Amino acid sequence: MTDLDDDLDWLYRRGRYADGSAAAPGADLSAQPTRRTPSPAVASQTRPAPRPRPVQASAPTRPVRAPRPATTGRRRRRWPLLVIGLLLLGLVGFVVYAVAVPMQAWSQMKHVAYVPDGNRPADQPGTLLLLTGSDSREGLTPEQKQKYGTGVEGANAADTIMLLYMPPSGRPALISIPRDSYVQIPGRKMNKINAAFSIGGPKLLTQTIEQNTGLRIDGYLSIGFGGFVTLIDSIGGIEQCPAYDIKDQDSHLDLKKGCQLMDGITALNYVRMRHADPLGDLGRVQRQRGMVAAVAKKVVTPTLLLDPGKYAATNKAGAAVLKAGEGTGLGEIAPAALAFLAISKGDGLTLTVPVSNPNLSTPAGSSVEWDKAKAAEMFAMVAKGDTAGLEKFKK
Questions:
Q1: How many domains does the chain have?
Q2: Residues 351-367: what's their mean pLDDT?
Q3: CA 94, 95, 100, 101 torsion: positive or negative?
Q4: At 166, which helix (H) or strand (E)?
Q5: Is 189 exposed, middle or buried (0-12, 13-18, 19+ CB in 10 A)?
Q6: Rounded mean pLDDT of 341-350?
Q7: In what ranges is there compositional bias, type Polar residues (predicted)?
């Protein structure tokens, strides 16, 4: 029984076989290694603790972008650099063209001496230009003289005398000097101011104006009969609006009142006419200023730049018909054109030297007498470089 019980204990792992260390009954202990099966309690104590799994580094997270604001309309298209470069190149070319054309044309302009000798008034702030329109027939054929109604001979007098003043700041002023103004001519007796031009040309006229105004002339521009006609025709005529019917035999003028387009010949006769004007010489200076402003408004315009042929022709015509004083160039002409444009738009002043008697009887004939006190006040304002106070002289 003992052996049977022992076998059963081995089979069912009881008694001494409970831990699995004892050999089977009848086994050769010398030939087999002893194997022990640890009990669950012992195994749990002897089993090495599991190694902790290594923590894997998480992949870097991308920054969360803020949502784009909702846009209305189309997305702005990014222009390629090539397109921008071409636009800049075109802009530079346009500027060069706009500057080079007048520079080339005006470099051919004729120049005359106008600066007088001797003492001159002190220089005032800004720029003061003397503008004259003479009755010179230079370059006109006998047929043109008859067509223009200028007569065969002329006294080479200054039919138009104006001062264009461009202050350092403020509004420009265009001041008309009546051609029949009775003044002292340097080195000579009292006479009409246009006689100074007939006697001594631009130099004596400049000296006469400087002596009677106390202002210093900084530049000079002049145009004759033929040049005036050519200039007006080159820009396709000019619109003027006579307030009354005009029929004047001396200027060969026959016009109905109202706005109308005038060609060069009609415009010339219109600004020369004075006998049929109720205001005489004073009415003529008003029409002259209106004509100058109208020409500037038509010539100094961006649309002219868009027509290369017309732009070149206008500059060429202007340079051909005008005479400038020595030292008077594009640097003075370009600002003058802008000043005329401002005046034509109402951003400048148009004035006449104050007059006390428009029909003064003198040895030189019917003349215009200045209001000496008011004229002196006007010229003093210009001498100070201030045009704000000139409004009081505007009529």
A1: 1
A2: 94
A3: positive
A4: strand 158-166
A5: exposed
A6: 87
A7: 31-47
Confirm whether 195 is domain-assigned: yes
- For residue 104, name the pLDDT band (cuts at 50, 70, 90): confident
On the question of pLDDT at 42 being above 50, the answer is no
CATH number at residue 286: 3.40.630.190
Residue range 270-324, pLDDT digits in tens: 888 877 787 877 888 888 888 888 888 887 777 777 777 787 877 787 777 788 8
Max intra-chain CA distance, the chain: 182
Containing domain of residue 236, as a range?
99-393
pLDDT recorded at residue 322:
82
134: part of which helix (H) or strand (E)? strand 127-134
Element (H, E) at 147: helix 142-148
Residues 6+ apart with CB under 8 A from 16: 9, 22
Tokens in use for 307? 């027509």
C-alpha 25: how far from chain center: 124
- Are residues 225 and 268 in contact, defined by beta-carbon separation less than 8 angstroms? yes
- In sequence order, the β-bridge partners of residue 165 are 128, 173
DSSP 214-280: -----EEEEE-HHHHHHHHHHTT-EEE--SS-EEETTTTEEE-SS-EEE-HHHHHHHHH--TTSTTT
Q: Could you tell me the two tokens for 263?
A: 């060609």
Contact partners, residue 41, CB within 8 Å, separation at least 6:
none
Does a structural domain hold residue 41? Answer: no
Residue 39 is predicted with a pLDDT of 52
Alpha-carbon span 19 to 131, nearest angstrom: 135
Higher pLDDT, 156 or 165: 165
Q: 281 in a domain, yes or no?
A: yes
